Amino acid sequence: MPKYKRFNFEPRHYDPIKEDIQNRTERIKGELKITSSQSHREHIKSAFNNRARRDASSDFMQLLLIIIMLGAFGGWLYFGNVVLYVFVIIFPLYVYLRTRKFFQ
Fold first, then answer.
1. CA atoms of 104 and 97, how far apart (whole Å)
2. Per-domain residue ranges for the chain?
3. pTM for the complete prediction?
4. 72-89 burial string, b = 16+ CB within 10 Å, else e?
């Protein structure tokens, strides 16, 4: 007979023990996912809480840079392009000294 005309019946059996085992394993896998995501969340939270505070010197340097930039902008408004030329000379000097650990 052709394949499409053949009768192929696969009987289904109900096994309550097997179904119970599958339900338990799915429930346990779900619980493990929840606990792993909670532990991951706690790990991230503790990492943020335990991070080191920045040095006061870095805060001072940021403040100093802001003051210099605002001063350069104000000088440009008041004096013109001459202040920008001075700033172009001083800023590379600052970067050079910063890389040489002069300010730290």
1. 10
2. 15-49, 56-99
3. 0.36
4. beeeeeeeeeebeeebee
